Amino acid sequence: MAEKEEEEDDYMGDLSQFLPPDASSLPSKTAPNKPVVSNKKRKVLKWQERKKLKRERKQIEEDQKTLVNLESAIPESNIGFKMLKQMGYTPGSALGKEGSGRSEPVGLEIRRGRAGIGKEDDKVEKMRREMEKADRDTRTQEELMETFGSHLKERWKEKRTVTNFHKAEAVLALLENREVVEEKKEDDGEKDEEEEEPITEEDLLNTLMKLRDEYHYCLFCGCQYESTESLLSNCPGITEEDH
Questions:
Q1: Which of 35, 111, 125, 243 sits at a 20 to 30 Å CA gap from 26?
Q2: Contacting residues for 193 by C-beta, under 8 A, at least 6 apart
Q3: How far apart are CA 168 and CA 207, in angstroms?
Q4: Measured between alpha carbons, how far is 152 from 171 in angstroms, rounded to an integer?
Q5: Cα–Cα distance, 103 to 191 (Å, whole number)
Q6: Among 112, 109, 133, which residue's Cα sits nearest to residue 122?
Q7: Which pTM does this prediction carry?
Q8: How is the chain classified by DSSP, letter by letter?
Q9: CA 10 to CA 43: how far, in whole Å?
Q10: Where is the region Disordered (predicted)?
């Protein structure tokens, strides 16, 4: 009887049996398995790229060494050079009977591509197309700049012609003792019904010649000479460019 009571006391004393199990022990809803990205393939690609770059760098160095060696003459210690001298070859002269052959070695073209003979290497062809495109773009830009510059120069020349014409007309009016007609500036939004005729270089030249012939005056010298002979001997020319 005593043993039975002890078992019941022990059963009631162990309250851990009534506690819920740990969350860690409960089956949890796991997220769906995500594909694991393996770095193995990426490492292989990087290794292959490094190997490819190393191979290309080595090829470029070999090509440079080959081109440098081609620029230097064959030394006299070379077996082929000795054989040519034994057959009567003179260094610097052309090969063949009476020097009718080649005097320079056959040119060498380094080809690294897999294209056949007569087909331009893909890299060389791509580079050539890029260079041609760059040349065309440069020429087009130069032509546009030249056209733009000539347009600006023409506009500036037209403005100078108008300005000099009005100056010459003002001086002529003073010399003729007549009233100077000032230009009326158009208000914003108002335009003349009839557009004025543009002033040309011929109009300017006629006014300049009238000043010179009748009053011995040069607009660009800025003075009136005593006589025609004094004007011709001291004035460098009729136009502004002459001054």
A1: 35
A2: none
A3: 6
A4: 29
A5: 80
A6: 112
A7: 0.42
A8: -HHHHHHHHHHHH-GGGGSPPPTTTSPP-PPPPPPPPPHHHHHHHHHHHHHHHHHHHHHHHHHHHHHHHHHSPPPTTSHHHHHHHHTT--TTSPSSGGG-S-SSPPP-----S---TTSPPHHHHHHHHHHHHHHHHHHHHHHHHHHHHHHHHHHHHHHHHHHHHHHHHHHHHHHTT----PPPPPPTT---SSPPPPP-HHHHHHHHHHHHHHH-EETTTTEE-SSHHHHHHH---SSTTT-
A9: 63
A10: 1-43, 92-142, 178-201
The two three-digit tokens of residue 188, written as one number: 């914003």
For 66, 72, 90, 93, 105, the CA distances from 76, given in Å and listed in that order, are 19, 12, 12, 15, 16
**What's the token pair of residue 130?**
């890029």
Q: Residue 171 in contact with residue 217, Cβ under 8 Å?
A: yes
**What tokens does 12 get?**
């009631």
